[in-house]
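Explain the record.
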Amino acid sequence: MSSIELHRKIMNLERTIAKKETKVKELKQKVVAASQGNTECCCDELRLIFEEKEQKLMQLTNYWRTKTQQMMSLSQQEVQTLKN
């Protein structure tokens, strides 16, 4: 490898290290904020999203259950008229 390539690699690694150090500092700040109770728990937000999705799925289930029952009723009536 030439010295230019080595210098490029060194510069890229130094940039990567700087980015990671910044990320570590941000994470440490979040940990401190969380330990002081200054942040909302993401679990609460996820729980809310889950409950909303579950409610929508239940509504959809109820709709299709009702629709299926209606179709079954109609088809049973048609079968009865054909038998008679």
Notes: The radius of gyration is 31 Å. The first helix runs from residue 3 to 35. The chain has a mean pLDDT of 86.
